């Protein structure tokens, strides 16, 4: 009996291709506890590494006494910088053109810096041995404030750089200065400011925060002394780059280095860099000839691996009396900590901060970012936007609010007036970015209508008029533009490797497929969404498409997953590889159907002979034929590789809206409403997009309302556990409302722009906008984050409105 | 985050446990739910050489009514307190407040006895015990004795317990008929200890206050009973103005420690807020 013929709609639905909210392929294993994380890897004979860390933020190491630790049964080795010196591994290059100590060499530069490592039979013995290593320090004056670091008589932090007046990004003007990077046209901006009818300025701090992924960093390094091969499982967002670095550092040929990123429990930029722990575990494995595992604990993760932000920003806007923005100037002092360990494209030491003209049509702009050393941990890579777009968007959105307040113009109105119009795309920003597409005004009106903006403003006015109101009400609005998909190799490289990404697809004889990628999922659901792109391109059901990433021995070289680059770059590589296969498949179909290629039409999952509905070959038919007897002149097999070098970045955007109620007695704020409209171009899996947005908004909420790494003047990090560090649970997380428009990217093969960082980038200034708005009638124009109850209460008191 | 080595003991009876504590001396610690002790051990702030696990002594858990008394076994977990029908009927403050302690995982193992015995002024049960006029039953080498909550909390991490004592039960009386109650706890996030918290139990007779307890959490070296604040309301028909006055009296005895939750001024002000809100809520429930 013949199976019933399926309608095109049924066939389309079966593919679960682009636009389908298919469930996440990853979840079956995660929710059953079957994920395989780094710490789940156990190898025979495996040893454990733990790290002796500095209790002080700045000091000279006088002496390290190992004997007591070495005397503990089960301890194999205790290594310090002196032991790594002969291998020239006591320092390592950073991705930002600086060097960082692997183990502290003569000096410690921040609290919790790695000073020595111990290797032991198990992690309990290792922990005891860490306690038993005695380190004697001579304390040195501590510099926590980046402005103080630049004073003439500030203590010299990096003695290793003495006499180095030329850094990786230009001249160094001071012993604690790393770089000064500028973009835009200073003279043009100065001119505009000199003659503008209105100018506003605002200083703001984007505090140092930490992404705090659920899984901390770690690795298992296993060197096989007989084969000379090094295999390392590592919580890395960029395994291929790590392989290159490890090969360069260790001298092991890249072909014999294998980095495997297993399941990763969240990255957010925290897992981009190469940490001393990785280097030490690898060295130990090579030296001892045994596998060595290192897993950070929570305190170590928060204290020592990549933090985010720490940007001290001064923004200035010039405008007409009626609120048309004419010019923007920004000066930033960026606290990079003890080593410059950012992971930006080489030419951009402040990442893509020059997106700071935002969604607005501004003719003249200039920004300058000064990188500074202090006695804090290095990093600056994270989070949920590695490339400083978060800081840039915060700056411009705050400034537009400040200007609106000064001119007494409504914050929606001032945006209407200044947003880049739809007909201006592609739009070249004053910093030289070419925004690919956008329709900001439509999105803005959609949001204002959805929330009934007018009614909310009226309610707010009533509350302001009533001194007995127990709450203050604030309204936040942000109209942001993101820049993601780094990046075009003509502009972007890391360690000289262009920021392309890659995909290899193989179609098996029976019509299922495997795709291998240069990226690596950390919760984004690549195994689900990548398959959907192939499904739509090639007519193969998503369900039978396997996606593999993270093993450098099997995956094609790629730069990894951060900066929302997976869909814009690797997603494009998939489509292009699929199209190569599609082209070959068409040749095979023409051969099988005995017609010319030009007589064929593609429909969902098959090539049909035009005008003859019954004559067709499905992709499954073609796959089999490709392995059976391909037409003359064609190689057997059906596979393709594509390395995609994007012609431009992509520019997702969003309109975010928030209503906050502040308790005048306690300073507690409650987010009554948060409405997020995102436009990420073509939507591959709406459910996953929603999930990404919920996650990004929640992390944005965390940053805005509570996260901050608090230090005292001696450089002690006071809140480095989850008792103090704010990770919101379902209880405090607001209910998110999401919405969308679709403005595809014109230069991307499937029109997709990337979404995972938008909600983080966009929501943080929205919360601040709302909190400040609650105080706006009192003349307050800005309040620094985090907006904790305590800090808000102090503000209530300062303004004399607390109950 | 890894504790040093320790020996683990698991007695089956209270006597056996007391025997172990006596013979092992001050290097031994009782292990109840472990949710205060183990974090301190992981940070190596506490390094006991012996843990005496009292989780398998059945008579230490559960709630029973003995005459006028409600006896809560020290090993009753927070979640058991929350679910217990006797407590919900007769001392509803305890289950309601327990819901504000930590998170579900911690409440699955953390015990009311451990929360009290730990002597941490940030813990919630000490102030609740004061508000309920609880009496602690303590068993030591010399046998059992009773200590009222008002004499139990001596300082931070310091209680009337000796090293070889076990807190076996917490005894309370049913609230007076028609009593209202409230526990207001300001915290930074789920699972956090109080920035400031206040428990109130109030009963009215002919519209005026016939019974009142006002107690405070994390606002001094121990939980505090705010006698002066109670005196403001006692025998009175309560007005907003009296509530404010009571809050001021309570604030006057606060002596909180500054930490990341806030400075002394803020915590004291928050004490005032919690006291006012707890009194108002308790009154609204009294009849
Ligand atoms: C994340 C987190 C959040 C928390 N938040 C709160 C909170 O908001 N409010 C709050 O009140 N608590 C909070 N706690 C503490 C928690 O409630 C603990 O469970 C409680 O403080 C201790 O009870 P336990 O049964 O776990 O005792 P353990 O940790 O086992 O013991 C604590 C101490 O008491 C001693 N001890 C225990 N039982 C007895 C006994 N019967 N007789 C004599 N000595 C004994 C032990 O030797 C030890 O010194 C939190 C804990 C965590 C981990």
What would you note in describing this structure?
The complex is a heterodimer of chains A (803) and B (287). With 803 residues, chain A is of the alpha+beta class. Chain A folds into three domains: 172 residues, 2-Layer Sandwich (Aldehyde Oxidoreductase, domain 4); 179 residues, Aldehyde oxidase/xanthine dehydrogenase, a/b hammerhead (Aldehyde Oxidoreductase, domain 3); 329 residues, Aldehyde oxidase/xanthine dehydrogenase, molybdopterin binding domain (Aldehyde Oxidoreductase, domain 4). In chain A, strands 3-7-1-16-13-14-15 form a seven-stranded mixed beta sheet, sandwiched between helices. In chain A, helix 11 packs parallel to helix 19, helix 16 crosses helix 17 and helix 18 packs across helix 19. The longest helix of chain A has 28 residues. Chain A is globular. Chain A starts with 7 loop residues before the first helix and ends in a 5-residue tail after the last helix. Chain B has 287 residues and is α+β, with helices and mostly antiparallel strands. Chain B folds into three domains: 47 residues, Uridine Diphospho-n-acetylenolpyruvylglucosamine Reductase, domain 2, CATH 3.30.43; 112 residues, Uridine Diphospho-n-acetylenolpyruvylglucosamine Reductase, domain 3; 106 residues, Enolase-like, domain 1 (2-Layer Sandwich), CATH 3.30.390.50. Helix content of chain B is 33%, strand content 26%. Chain B has eleven helices and 14 strands. A five-stranded antiparallel beta sheet of chain B has the order 4-5-10-6-7. Chain B has a four-stranded antiparallel beta sheet with strand order 11-12-13-14. A three-stranded parallel beta sheet of chain B has the order 1-3-2, covered by helices on one side. In chain B, a hairpin with a 2-residue loop joins strand 8 and strand 9. The longest helix of chain B is centred in the last third of the chain and has 22 residues. The relative contact order of chain B is 0.12. The chains are: A alpha+beta (803), B alpha+beta (287). The interface between A and B is medium-sized, with 30 and 21 residues. Bound molecules: flavin-adenine dinucleotide.
């Amino acid at each position: 009996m013949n199976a019933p013929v399926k309608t095109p709609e049924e066939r389309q639905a079966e593919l679960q291709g682009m636009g389908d909210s298919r469930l996440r392929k990853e979840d079956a294993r995660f929710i059953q506890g079957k994920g395989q994380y780094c710490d789940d890897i156990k190898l025979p004979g495996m040893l454990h590494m733990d790290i002796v860390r500095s209790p002080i933020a700045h000091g000279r190491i006088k002496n390290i006494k190992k004997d007591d630790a070495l005397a503990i049964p089960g301890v194999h080795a205790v290594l310090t910088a002196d032991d790594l010196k002969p291998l020239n591994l006591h320092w390592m290059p950073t991705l930002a053109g600086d060097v960082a100590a692997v183990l502290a060499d003569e000096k410690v530069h921040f609290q919790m810096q790695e000073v020595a490592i111990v290797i032991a039979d198990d992690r309990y013995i290792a922990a005891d041995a860490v306690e038993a290593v005695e380190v004697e320090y001579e304390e040195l004056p501590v510099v926590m404030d980046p402005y103080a670091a630049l004073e003439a008589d500030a203590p010299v932090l990096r003695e290793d750089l003495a006499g180095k007046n030329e850094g990786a990004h230009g001249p160094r003007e001071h012993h604690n200065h790393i770089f000064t990077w500028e973009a835009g046209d200073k003279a043009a901006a100065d001119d505009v400011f000199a003659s503008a009818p209105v100018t506003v300025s605002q200083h703001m701090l984007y505090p140092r925060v930490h992404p705090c992924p659920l899984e901390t960093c770690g690795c298992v390094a296993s060197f096989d002394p007989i084969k000379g091969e090094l295999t390392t499982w590592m919580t890395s967002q960029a395994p291929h780059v790590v392989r290159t670095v490890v090969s360069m550092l260790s001298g092991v040929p890249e072909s014999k280095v294998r980095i495997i990123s297993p399941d990763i429990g969240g990255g957010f930029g925290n897992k981009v860099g190469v940490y001393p722990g990785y280097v030490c575990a690898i060295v130990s494995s090579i030296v001892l000839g045994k596998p060595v595992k290192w897993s950070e604990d929570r305190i170590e993760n928060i204290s020592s691996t990549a933090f985010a932000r720490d940007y001290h920003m001064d923004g200035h806007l010039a405008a007409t009396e009626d609120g048309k923005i004419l010019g923007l100037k920004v000066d930033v002092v960026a606290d990079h900590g003890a080593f410059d360990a950012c992971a930006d494209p080489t030419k951009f030491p402040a990442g893509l901060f020059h997106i700071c003209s935002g969604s607005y049509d501004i003719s003249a702009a200039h920004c300058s970012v000064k990188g500074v050393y202090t006695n804090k941990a290095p990093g600056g890579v994270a989070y949920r936007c590695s490339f400083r777009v978060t800081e840039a968007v915060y700056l411009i959105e705050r400034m537009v609010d400040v200007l609106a307040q000064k001119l007494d113009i409504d914050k929606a109105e001032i945006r209407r007036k200044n947003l880049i119009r739809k007909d201006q795309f592609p739009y070249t920003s004053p910093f030289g970015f070419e925004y690919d597409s956008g329709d900001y005004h439509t999105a803005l009106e959609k949001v204002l209508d959805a929330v009934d903006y007018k009614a909310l403003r009226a309610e707010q006015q009533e509350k302001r008029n009533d001194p007995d109101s127990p709450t203050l009400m604030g309204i936040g609005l942000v109209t942001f533009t993101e820049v993601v998909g780094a990046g075009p190799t003509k502009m972007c490289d890391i360690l000289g490797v262009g920021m392309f990404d890659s995909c290899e697809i193989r179609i098996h004889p029976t019509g299922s497929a495997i795709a291998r990628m240069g990226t690596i999922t950390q919760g984004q659901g690549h195994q689900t969404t990548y398959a959907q792109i192939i499904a739509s391109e090639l007519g193969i059901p998503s369900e039978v498409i396997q996606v593999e990433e993270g093993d450098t021995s099997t995956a094609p070289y790629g730069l990894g997953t951060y900066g929302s680059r997976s869909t814009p770059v690797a997603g494009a590589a998939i489509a292009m590889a699929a199209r190569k296969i599609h082209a070959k498949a068409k040749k095979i179909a023409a051969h099988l159907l005995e017609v010319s290629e030009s007589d064929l039409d593609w429909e969902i999952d098959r090539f049909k002979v035009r005008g003859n509905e019954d004559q067709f070959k499905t992709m499954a038919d073609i796959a089999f034929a490709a392995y059976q007897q391909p037409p003359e002149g064609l190689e057997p097999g059906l596979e393709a590789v594509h390395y995609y070098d994007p012609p431009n970045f992509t520019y997702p955007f969003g309109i975010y809206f928030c209503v906050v109620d502040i308790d005048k007695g306690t300073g507690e704020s409650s987010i009554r409403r948060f409405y997020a409209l995102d436009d990420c171009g073509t939507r591959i899996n709406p459910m996953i997009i929603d999930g990404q947005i919920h996650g990004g908004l929640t992390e944005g909420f965390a940053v805005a309302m509570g996260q901050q790494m608090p230090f005292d003047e001696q450089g002690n990090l006071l809140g480095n556990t989850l008792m103090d560090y704010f990770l919101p649970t379902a209880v405090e997380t607001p209910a998110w409302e999401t919405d969308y428009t679709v403005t595809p990217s014109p230069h991307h093969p499937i029109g997709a722009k990337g979404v995972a960082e938008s909600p983080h980038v966009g929501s943080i200034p929205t919360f601040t906008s709302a909190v400040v708005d609650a105080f706006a009638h009192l003349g307050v124009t800005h309040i620094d984050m985090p907006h904790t109850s305590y800090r808000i209460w102090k503000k209530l008191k300062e303004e004399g409105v607390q109950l | 985050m890894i504790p040093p080595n320790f020996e683990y003991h698991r007695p089956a009876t209270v006597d056996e446990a007391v025997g172990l504590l006596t013979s092992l001396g001050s290097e031994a610690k009782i292990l109840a739910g472990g949710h205060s002790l183990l974090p301190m051990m992981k940070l190596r702030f506490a390094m006991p050489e012996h843990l005496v696990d009292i989780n398998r002594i059945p008579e230490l858990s559960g709630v029973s009514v003995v005459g006028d008394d409600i006896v809560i076994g020290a090993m009753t977990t927070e979640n058991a307190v929350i679910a217990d029908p006797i407590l919900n009927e007769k001392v509803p403050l305890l289950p309601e407040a327990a819901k504000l302690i930590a998170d579900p995982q911690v409440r699955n193992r953390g015990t009311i006895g451990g929360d009290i015995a730990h002597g941490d002024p940030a813990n919630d049960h000490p102030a609740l015990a004061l508000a309920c006029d609880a009496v602690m039953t303590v068993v030591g080498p010399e046998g059992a004795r009773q200590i009222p909550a008002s004499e139990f909390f001596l300082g931070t991490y310091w209680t009337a317990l000796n090293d070889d004592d076990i807190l076996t039960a917490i005894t309370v009386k049913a609230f007076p008929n028609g009593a209202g109650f409230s526990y207001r706890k300001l915290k930074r996030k789920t699972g956090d200890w109080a920035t400031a918290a206040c428990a109130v139990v109030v009963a009215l007779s002919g519209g005026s206050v016939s019974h009142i307890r006002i107690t405070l959490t994390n606002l001094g070296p121990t939980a505090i009973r705010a006698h002066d604040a109670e005196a403001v309301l006692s025998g009175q028909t309560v007005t907003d103005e009296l509530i404010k006055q009571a809050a001021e009296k309570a604030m006057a005895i606060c002596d909180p420690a500054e930490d990341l939750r806030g400075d002394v001024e803020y915590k004291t002000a928050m004490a005032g807020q919690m006291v006012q809100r707890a009194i108002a809520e308790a009154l609204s429930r009294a009849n």
